[in-house]
Amino acid sequence: MNKAKVLFLCTGNSARSQMAEGLLRAMAGEQFDVFSAGTEPKGSILPEVREAMREVGIDISGQWSKSVTEYLGKAVFTHVITVCADAEEKCPAVFLNMGIHEHWPFDDPAKSGDEDRLEVTRRVRDQIETRLRLWLNGQNITPKEYR
Hints:
Layout (H helix, E strand, L loop, with lengths): L3 E7 L5 H13 L3 E7 L8 H9 L23 E4 L2 H6 L2 H4 L3 E4 L13 H22 L9
Parallel strand pairs: 1-2, 1-3, 3-4
Helix pairs in contact: 1-5, 2-5
């Protein structure tokens, strides 16, 4: 059986889309091939994102910041989910017209101050998890418990 392919898109691919990728893998990785990318990738994942994911038992050390152009002409996605307004506006139309497109806007932890970044990252992580649980339930998929 071919797994459905899910692409999470944001601007920098350093926080929100990375968390969504890791969370969906942990919750339903046997059901989906999961990817993330950015319209303007930063080249690295925020350390606070790695920490916030570690806190809930998810290791994203195998993930890296990449451009959406890496997938042009190479992958067909069943679901394309933008997690910020900028990615929604700047994403190549080929991806937004591919499969099922959804837009789930979340605050950007990268835009918070250094002293607040981990707290903001945890809040956004939990919001993404809640949204993913709703999404999976809507597809009659019971999310795995991973914490």
